[in-house]
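Give me structure tokens for this 283-residue protein.
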Amino acid sequence: MNAVENNSMVKKEAEQPPLFRYAMAVEYDGSRYHGWQRQQAGVASVQAAVEAALSKIANEPVTVICAGRTDTGVHASYQVIHFETHAVRPERGWVMGTNTKLPDDVSIKWAKSVGQDFHARFSALERRYRYLIHTAPVKPGVLNKGVTWTHKTLDESRMQLAGDYLVGTHDFSSYRAVACQARSPVRELRHLWVRRIGDLIVIDVRANAFLHHMIRNIAGVLMKIGAGEAEPEWAKEVLDARDRRLGGVTAPPFGLYFVDARYPDSHNLPKSPLGPFFLAEFD
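Here you go.
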């Protein structure tokens, strides 16, 4: 490359507009999506829907990174993402504009300009999920894909006793999917409580990170214990075995919600009431 070509390339690079990084919170009903992650053409995913909408508002291709990928049928009330763009828009403009391009089951809650040191996945200190179980003699017609239904009577106090055995740093091999690709099965489960609101049982869990199907496998074990089909100590026996084959049934995805991702205070991200919205006052 001669000096003229080199100078031309440097000039073009200098003329490139700067890249700006934004964080957003996304809420979605995952019922009709094959999970968060972008799939092959023709397969619906939340990531693809968000990227398509943002690309229209930015007038350029946009790729997003999330705090934690969710599976097929799983929902979120506070999924945090970040993306980079040359486009300059006010934060409210990103929210309102993107929402006009999104399907009705996906919504941007807020947008914030962040520094290059912010990363939706790697900056997260912990993630939080809620698993909702509707206990009634017959299946619900409303929110039938927003809760997991069981006709069995569940004792939430037995479920709580079982959940207490899982809090702490453990090898969760028995509670992860056989196909889980995480390098280590060790996770720190920082909080697990079980509460009842009428016919609705809520399992609320926080951890530094989760394994594939970890929460749904925990829910499956707790539901069996709540139904009186196993003793609370069984949750610990499954944990200590480090063998997924002993873990019982994986609970359905429909009642699972990603409800929070916590970051260092230095990023000063907006906070929202813990979701889903009909549980906003339940903490």
